[in-house]
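If you are new to this repository, start here. Below is one unmodified record pulled from the training split, so you can see the exact layout before writing a loader.
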Amino acid sequence: MAESQGRTCLCITGPTACGKTELALELAEHVPLEVVSMDSALVYRHLDIGTAKPSAEVRARVPHHLIDIVEPTESYSAGRFARDAAALIESIHARDRLPVLVGGTLLYLRALRDGLATLPRADPVLRERIDREAEAHGWSALHERLQRLDPAAAARIAPSDRQRIQRALEVHELTGQPITQLQRGESGNGGANVASIALVPESRADLATRIERRFDSMVEAGFVREVEQLRARGDLNPDMPSIRAVGYRQIWAHLEGEYGWTQARTKAIVATRQYAKRQLTWLRGDPRCEPWPAYAPGLIERLLARVTKEFRSR
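And here is the target side for that same chain:
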């Protein structure tokens, strides 16, 4: 741990549906803490059911930050998260409470912990050419090209994530280097001291089942109606970061008539499983994220001992 407690925080991360929020709320029963959401979808207002957003009752009981802070028409970047989270960590410590990052957007964790690399500015001409290539050959073909140029980036980027595929290819063409290599180099602001615990399921099959059950529970709670209301606004489209969130884009496409409900459900569940796989790949490559078995008995006792030793004893 760094000597400056004001920039020290705990992070509970891991793949989707691994029990991060539940563990944080259990910890809050024993330790005065505030949650700083590390989830790129929870920042959006009106995206509630499909993001598993904590309820108003939970947020009244345990303070949560970086939830419902932008409209779904807006973008929210890793750099902005790093600035916002760093300020919150300081203010939470000033209240003599423990800041706990909770979420699975691992780019946000890297931005806060390491800063962001200085990358070239966007090149509109190059981007237009990449878009034309995608139109001619499909984004899956460009993802395959990225796999050859930068396997680490391809492992973290979904074949359907047009924006990130385009950016990774753009950076490679402008610099001749993989974006992951540049991101490991010179950094901008950041540098928070983060003790990271990654909840990792011992069984992929168990995680897959949990993901499927969670999606069906969201549908029962009104997920489709939520997406219908977002479509009805008239100011959103499926290319926006908010609507590209897993689950939202598949239901949106179903409502647009691109495929039936059975296919939409399957696509949403498969996309969530693929996202979890990419999260696990990232975590395996990050030695600073200490793996703990998700759903294991005794997790809260282990976490309390860790917090008492490394945080509350200061």
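Two things worth knowing about this chain: The chain has a mean pLDDT of 91. Residues 5-116+187-312 form a domain with the Rossmann fold fold (CATH 3.40.50.300).
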